Amino acid sequence: MPFSSPRTDQDDHLWLECWREQRTDFHQPVVNPLLSRFWPALELARGSRVFVPLCGKSLDMLWLAQQGHEVIGVELSPVAVSDFFRERGLQPTQKQVGDFTLWRAGKLSILCGDFFALTRDDLGELDTVYDRAALTALPENIRELYVAQLQRLVSKTATVFLLTVEDAAADATTAQANGIDDEIKALYSTGFDIELTFVESVFEADPESASLPDIRAEYKVYRLSCR
Ligand SMILES: C[S@@+](CC[C@H](N)C(=O)[O-])C[C@H]1O[C@@H](n2cnc3c(N)ncnc32)[C@H](O)[C@@H]1O
Known about the structure:
8 helices
């Protein structure tokens, strides 16, 4: 059963507008290096199905398909979905699946519509989730509902491969900054075992001011196993 979406029309409107106006700074022009470096350790069988929530037009989906996976993304914006296939020179088929339009080319499928309206029947059996800038794209008050919806959609033995980027607080100790983030613990610890696979600290210039000290960003790779 779908549950009623906690989002406001305004949330949808902002994302749809972003794509229409091509304000998509979050889009990465290359495959995420942490994906290609740490994904193989999951040792998934070729042909296994990977779910990519809030997928945008991410090139990571292409890389996952090249590893032999069946990739199923979900994305609100038809502009993003259309751009994804067009920019790759792919010619997808389209068909209506409930409230969604399913775009498909080979191993790549994207359901265009609202993640919060998805059901297990729309997706079929799924064991693995790839999340880059999906959870963290949502307002904080909606993230708990995102995790609950994810749990409804995937199998009881699913694994989530989660990438996050956090700004380390100016006064954070290295031990704090290198640990499992409190919000990730709060959101996932009741349903998942959380393993922090990798942390990289990167010092980035403060875009607001050249005279301020660099900001420390923590790039983290999590492996979350449903229990
Ligand atoms: C920050 S972007 C990240 C996209 C992609 N994961 C990436 O790594 O490039 C978040 C995406 O989520 C989409 N989105 C936002 N709310 C959504 C929803 N309720 N259902 C499906 N997609 C949604 C937006 O249109 C946007 O493309």
